[in-house]
Structures are given as C-alpha cells and as structure tokens.
Amino acid sequence: QRRVHGGEQMERVTLICLAAIAWTAIYVCCACVLPTPVAIANDKKKTNDFYNRIVSLIHAVVACVLSGWCLTHEGLSFGSPNSATQTTVLSISLGYFIYDFLACHALGLSTMSSSFHHAMCLVGLGITIYSGVSASEVCAATLLTELSNPFMHLRFLLRYAGLDRTATFQVNEILFVSVFFVARLILGSPLTYLTYKSAKTPVVVKLAAFGLMAVSVYWFGLMVRLIVRMFADPKPSSFIVPAVPAQKCKAT
Questions:
Q1: What are phi and psi of 81, to 5 degrees?
Q2: pLDDT in tens, 16-44
Q3: 133 has which bridge partners?
Q4: Could you tell me which residues come within 8 angstroms of residue 147 by beta carbon, excluding any fewer than 6 positions away?
Q5: CA distance linking residue 105 with residue 202, whole number of Å
Q6: I need a surface site. Which of 104, 129, 191, 218 has the fewest CB within 10 A?
Q7: Residue 56: exposure state from Cβ atoms within 10 A (0-12, 13-18, ≥19)
Q8: Is the dihedral of CA 120, 18, 144, 101 positive or negative?
Q9: Contacts of residue 48, Cβ cutoff 8 Å, sequence gap at least 6
Q10: How far is it, in rounded angstroms, from Cα 135 to Cα 148?
Q11: Per-residue confidence (pLDDT) for residue 229, from 0 to 100
C-alpha cells in the first residue's frame, strides 16, 4: 500500500461525490424528459425502476468502455499502484454505486441480494481507491461483471415497454445468459483466484471478490433453474430468466 497525502485523498473524495451527483442528475433528467411506457404508467415502483435501469444501462456501457481502455493501454498487474486514469474510472463507478444504493432504497427497489452486491462493490472500490493499489484487477473485474448488464437492463426495459413476447426480447435473453456465464463465471473465476493468490492485493479486496463471485453463482443458479423449467414446460411465457438486481463492479 503506497502512502497518499491528504490533498490527493480529498481530490478523490471530491471526484466520487461529483460522480454520484452526476448519476443522480441523469436519473432526474430521464424521469423528466423521457416518456413513461403506457404498460407501467400507473405503477410507481415499476416507473421508478424503468428510469433507474436506464441510468444503470448507461453506467454499464461507460464502465465497460473505460475499464476496457485501462486494460488495453495499461495491462493487468495484480496489486500494482493505481494510475491516475484507473483511479478516475473506478471513482466514476463508485459514484454510480453510491447513487444506485441510495436510489434503490429511496425508491423501494432494493432486495437482500442487491444490497449485498452493492455493499461488496462499495467496499471493493472504496478500499482500492483509498489504498492506492489493485485498481488493475478491479478494472478487469468491473469489465467482466458489467459486460452482461446492458442485456440485463434492456430485458427489463423491453418488458416494461410491453415487448416481452417479441423475437428481440428472446434474442436479448439468450445473449444475457450467455454473456453472464462466460464473463462472470468462465472468465471471472480465474480472475478471482488470481486476485486471491496475489500477495500485494489488499485482503478486503480479496473478500469483496469472493463475495461478488458468490452472488454471481447464486444468480446464475436461478437462471439455470428457470431454463430447466422452460424445457419442462416450453410455453412462450416460460422463456424469461429471473430478475437480477442492478449491479455493478464485481471483483466479480
């Protein structure tokens, strides 16, 4: 862990707060500007979830692009000092998770699994930024865990728009389950193991990595159960994988 002076820490806190405010502002803009789908117009909770998932989808795309850029240009080095770019990328995501955690509770959208997921992300990102090390593997984890999220949030948006019996919805379902399995389990498992084996990675980051992997396994288990039921009772309505709470960083 490298020593970080107070001024640098204050800059990080300021960036995180600004990011949280920016994500909140995006939600307010979406709620004020975008029309509410007719199918959920009289359901306040679903309406809130609709706009929150638009914000989550935007974050997923931004997080994948920025994390991918960091990995492409700075490589993967476990327990190495954070670069300025890595710190900025993780601060943007940490600001998002602060927004999402508060929004889900304020709007009545939180569940036990989503709250646990938020906690692991907040701890993992927060410790990584504060300690000044391990941003490399956390950026890799962010990329893998966010990769399936655009499809996950899109499935809810399509459902709220009344398009859950279309070919587009079913293709998106297949892509969601496939990308989730490959990114979070096939690629995420060795990343979690290498994070655990790294002598330089903070213990708290390792624990967050295992916690988030456990949530991924749990969610995928729910998907498998629904897929099995789909083949046992192949009705059009059964081709809907279970809801996965809006997520985010996973040391995944």
A1: -60, 145
A2: 999 999 999 999 999 999 999 999 999 99
A3: 81
A4: 64, 179, 183
A5: 29
A6: 218
A7: buried
A8: positive
A9: 107, 108, 109
A10: 21
A11: 76
Query: Is 0.85 topped by the overall pTM?
Result: yes
Amino acid at the residue 21: I
Strand partners, 29: none
166 Cβ contact partners less than 8 Å away, ≥ 6 residues apart: 158
Residue 9 pLDDT grade (very low, low, confident, very high; cuts 50, 70, 90): confident
Q: For residue 160, which of 247, 65, 38 has the smallest C-alpha distance?
A: 38
What is residue 240's three-state secondary structure? Answer: coil
| Residue 50 tokens, joined | 């609709």
Distance, in Å, from the CA atom of 56 to the CA atom of 100, rounded to the nearest integer, reads 8
Cα separation, 201 vs 209, in Å, equals 11
Contact 76, 136 (CB under 8 A): yes
Amino acid of residue 97: F
| Structure token digits, residue 211 | 């916690």
